[in-house]
Amino acid sequence: MSNKHLFSILFCLLSTLYVFSQSGKISGTVYDGEYNDVLPFATISVKGASNGTTSDFEGDYSLDLEEGVYTIVFSFVGYETKEIQEVSISNGNVFEMDVTLNASTGILDEVVISTTVRRNTEESVLNLQKNSATLMDGLSSQSISRSGASSIASAVKSVPGVSVQEGKYLYVRGLGDRYTKSILNGMDIPGLDPDKNTIQMDIFPTNILENIIIYKSASAELPADFTGGVVDIVTKDFPSKKQMSVSFSAGYNPDMHFNNNYLSQEGGNTDFLGFDDGTRELPISSQINIPNPAESNSNLETITRLFDPNMAAQRESSLMDFSFGFNYGNQFEFNKNKLGFIASIDYKNATTFYEGFENGVYQKPEERDSYELRFDRRQFGDVGQNNVLASIMTGLSFKTAKSKYTLNLLHIQNGESRAALFNQNTEISNDINTVKDNLEYTQRSVTNLLFGGKHTSGDGSFITDWKISPTLSKSEDKDVRLTTFIEREGEFTISADAGFPNRIWRSLEEVNAVSKIDFQKKYTLFNNSSTLKFGALYSYKQRDYTINSYDIGFRGVNPIDLNGDPDAILTPDNIWTVESNSGYYLRGSFQPANTFDAIQSTAAVYLSNEFRFSENFRTIIGVRAEQFTSLFTGEGRQDGQTLQFDNDELLNELDFIPSANLIYEVMPNSNIRLSYSKTTARPSFKEKSLVQIVDLLTGITFLGNIDLKPSYIDNFDLRYEAFNDNAQMFAISGFYKHFKNPIEIVAFSNIAPNNFTPRNAPSADVIGVEFEARKNFQFIAENLKNLSINLNVSLIDSKIEMNKGEGEEYESRLNFAREGEKIDDTRALQGQSPFLINTSLLYNNEDLGIETGLFYNVQGKTLDVVGFGKNPDVFIQPFNSLNFNFSKTIGPEKKASMTLKVDNILNDTRESLYESFNASDKPFEYRAPGTSFSLGYSLTF
């Protein structure tokens, strides 16, 4: 080949690259304002030019354009044409823009709506809420991106009616975890805590999200087991462009970090990855028969020496919090088909240290004319905790002209190491003072696979959507250690009065398989648009739960010689031998009450129809049928009897769940909504069992209740909502909920005040009003348009009817009432806050790349544990959460950003208190989280 030809080829290649570098792309989704759905096969063109494209069956489109400023025209037969002005295309960048087209009103002449880019983006968000069949709220990917939030937990702070608890769990309308449900891409997924209905939201990075949708009222296609709300986390499947980003952050709490009094424990080499390397594995078979010293069997010595002798908490200096993340996304074209890929890796390492942690168990005195509560036991001390959270998520999508297939994989790994040192005083059940060392390690993981497909007819009027999603969830408490020394006149000893040194292994493994198929048909009824939806779901959950518990006995030795050192108990010289017939030895055996195998399955079908009576009035009516079955295998004692179950059926309920949503459009941007739905709250595996689970840190024991029944809730909502430009809105709502057989956590009995169990009450009623508003300050001055306030206030009154009869709650309260105290047969519902205030002051300047906000949240005093007899009620006290967030993009292309966060500015404390008539409040639990600061940096390539 001659140099001339080689030069020509290189010139052509470089010219092609140069031309490509001078072009960009516009992409997004076209929505149907008439059906509140995507609009397939709409036409997208450039005004004054010949180039253009059409949206695919999911409403998605993309169009390559040279650098410049354009007016983009969106049109569809029978719909208004929309012209978007000031669309600026820059070299190598993708301009993302979603558009909603509304049906024309029958006028023969074409209607053309002209608007700007910014206003169009805001209108898309408003149309999603305004035209929704249910009462919903949410965040789009654009609004999440503008907020600078790194996780869902940070992003949703601006959503009305939603509160973030413990920095990671979302509660809707002041209702607790039992009544809020989380789903991922429309499918059930268990969280790291398998007994919670909500998955923690700090594990999802925001740049892999398409949107977050929060449903506050029910419809037939939604799961039946929620009352407050459903949080649907929707991940991206087709990135609009190649994108790669990294992020780092560090957090500092003056009360917790670089503290030389921090408590920890010796661990394994992989603790920093969120799992144990085998250091804490049970060193013997759980089925082994451990001999006792009287048998003079040398196997006892061998078994005892296999156990890790480390039993004491250690003091050392604590480290800061830190995290990092990596995300990648891209799409490719193959013969007019598209292949999309996303991947995300995130890692968080958080250290907390509570000095002066306190918890206790208090009771009323026997004498009815005595008011002040007496402690059965109370403990004071320090707790150190290190929490590692790692997640990896990958997604692959393939789209043809009429079908799309998705495959997503999510794995979450969590390791939590905790060490505590307490002084405990016991007075009623035992008059002793003790010192306690507590070491715990919990390893959790969730692995989820989602495979699905979506198919459409030629005209886009009939859609089939199917998904299959298996999940494996594991939670293991590995070698939980508790050593209690009784302190008497400066000496420390061990005896049965306070309990022998304890070693516990707990293992939970749950398999969760969910499949569903949904059909949607658009049609015309009486010249008005209508949508028929129907489908089916099957869910299977199987859980194995095992507890292996051992303690350390002694023979022929005096524990006083240990000098209160837990690590001295299992030193080689102190272990029992056949020759000496003295020393410390392990003991324990299989306990049936600590093992169970349970299955829960749900088979559901649904049918709903949305149709219009007139242009302004539409209704969505549906019914969902769910067959719920619960099977249990296990053995234990309840009410003094030994019960045995072998795959026995505990529940077999066929529930019909109706729903109706009526929407009247008062004006183009305002609605009146009236809705009714029936929902349920079913007992968890742990609650409907015979299991006995001890929290060695607090000394509290959870007792399962095999007789527990599901709760059923009738929900009524009336709402007026008005939407305006710049994402402003105003809404006022009234709601009423009637509960049948509500489930509550109550004190088990007077004899065992530290035992708690779930029980059904006959009925409960909740009535409330809710005010929501988002308003910017442009009405004061034009230069204040970027400053806005979000406000959500809920006032709620709840009443529950107590169980009556011998040995029930109402009689127990009467029997232990104080002189002058009036006992009603109703009280507040457990877990329901009497008020909720959620407000934020936000400033968002896109030109400067600044997003900042001040967020305040508080919930009223909430009943946490229901008292019984001498055991008073426990109330969670209001926690005034005031947080600050500042984010600034950096560079001319704004590909880098810095984030500053300050949490708990008011330095409030978390308290749960016992409350009784004419008595001083006493602590059930007290923690001082302090004020924390974090600084983050992210860079997008």
Structure, described:
The protein has 6 helices and 52 strands. By secondary structure, it is mainly beta. The strands form 7 sheets. The chain has a 22-stranded antiparallel β-barrel. Strands 1, 2, 5, 8 and 9 form a 5-stranded mixed β-sheet that branches. A 5-stranded mixed β-sheet has the order 4-3-6-7-10. β26 and β27 form a beta hairpin. About 2% of the residues have low confidence.
Quick take:
By secondary structure, the protein is mainly β.
Give the topology, please.
Elements: H1 3-21, E1 23-32, E2 37-38, E3 43-46, E4 52-54, E5 60-66, E6 68-75, E7 81-89, E8 94-96, E9 99-101, E10 112-116, H2 117-130, E11 136-140, H3 141-147, H4 152-155, E12 162-165, E13 169-172, E14 180-184, E15 187-188, E16 209-215, E17 229-235, E18 243-252, E19 262-264, H5 299-305, E20 314-316, E21 321-334, E22 337-363, E23 374-399, E24 403-426, E25 432-456, E26 462-488, E27 491-493, E28 502-525, E29 528-555, E30 583-587, E31 595-612, E32 617-638, E33 641-667, E34 670-681, E35 692-695, E36 700-703, E37 711-724, E38 728-740, E39 743-747, E40 755-760, E41 763-776, E42 787-801, H6 809-815, E43 826-827, E44 835-845, E45 850-859, E46 862-865, E47 873-876, E48 881-890, E49 896-903, E50 910-915, E51 922-927, E52 932-940
Parallel strand pairs: 1-8, 1-9, 7-10, 14-17, 36-40
Antiparallel strand pairs: 1-2, 1-5, 3-4, 3-6, 6-7, 11-16, 12-13, 14-15, 16-17, 18-21, 18-52, 19-20, 21-22, 22-23, 22-51, 23-24, 24-25, 25-26, 26-27, 26-28, 28-29, 29-30, 29-31, 31-32, 32-33, 33-34, 34-37, 35-36, 37-38, 38-41, 39-40, 41-42, 42-43, 42-44, 44-45, 45-48, 46-47, 47-50, 48-49, 49-52, ...
